[in-house]
Amino acid sequence: MKRDIAKFITNCDTCNRIKAERERPAGLMKPLEIPQWEWEKITMDFIVGLPRSPKGNDSIWVIVDRLTKSAHFIPVKASYKASQLAELYIQNILKLHGVPLSIVSDRGPQFTAQFWKSLHRALDTKLDYSTAYHPQTDGQTERVNQLLEDLLRACVLTCGPNWEASLPFAEFSYNNSYQASIEMSPFQALYGRQCRTPLMWEEAGERQFYGPAIGSRECGQREPQNLSESSEKLCRQAQRELTFEEGDFVYLKVSPLHGTKRFHTRGKLAPRYTRPFRIKMKVGDLAYELELPEHLSEVHPVFHVSQLRKCMRLPEDQISLVDNLEYLEYPVQILDRAEKGTRRTRIPVCKVLWNNHSEREATWEKESELREKYPHLFENDV
């Protein structure tokens, strides 16, 4: 009986879609190749949703050098096109550091635009995109974003709501802060000496404002070694190796979108995984391409192995997804009607059966809201 129960749970579609994994994260660590020169390989991302500044900017373009960890923070508007971003890129990066060999970024619309791709094809710069729904590929920039947001919060709390005026000071503070991975500050890694400033950066008796302790080239030789040691230390963290074969079916980790009134907390009790997809091919060492239906043709089909769970048995019913890999729930049938009232008013309610749910999970909803959102349910009313 114990074996039968374990087998049933292993093959149960509901259990596979809702149960959390109690194992180590899937996919072994595979660090990116360590650059050999400053600003040879960079990463970039956007911080969006900021309050509009007096100049009209509501986002920050974060560009980080993967070797020295030095960064530039450029205020932009979320409505900027790829051509406008290209002008800022030339003014703030190319004129100071030259043309990089590669750029790591996510799949935002600014970075996947044809103009952006054509520009870097002409500059002979390789564009490396992170896997869909797996930002860990560009974890360095995500971490810088977090630090920058914390700095701006402190600046706004002290100096007022104009975050753009505090952005140069935040960039100065970040570039002169000690980085454990390179064992020095980004400024020292880039220029070979500590930044000349009236602030006391070192301990008493160890300050050195003039003359570098070590030369720029010696600094440049230490950075790859320090980064290599940090990468090896990170890779030693235990992770679980997980592989699939071509033709296997896997569940995909997505977030649900509930467009109904009965879910008061968006996605809190939603399944962790959704319908099985067939694996088309393996991409690299840690990603797989899935066979998505036609209505999801605009979704990037490559996913990191940590977003997948093996399907042992195909379920009979499958949930339909929308373009952003989320699914909607909608009412199928009205099972019963009643009235709920207070001392002064009477409110008609309907017992509704939802798709992907049984009659036991039917809920009572206000008739007025159902008539407004789903008028087809009342077409048979006289």
TrEMBL record:
One of the Pfam families matching this protein, by short name: SH3_Tf2-1
Integrase catalytic domain mapped to chain residues: 31-194
Origin superkingdom: Eukaryota
Gene Ontology biological-process annotations: DNA integration
Annotated protein name in UniProt: Integrase catalytic domain-containing protein
InterPro entries referenced in this protein's UniProt entry, alphabetically: Chromo-like_dom_sf, Integrase_cat-core, RNaseH-like_sf, RNaseH_sf, SH3_Tf2-1
Gene3D superfamilies: Ribonuclease H-like superfamily/Ribonuclease H (3.30.420.10)
GO terms assigned for molecular function: nucleic acid binding
SUPFAM superfamilies in the record: Chromo domain-like, Ribonuclease H-like
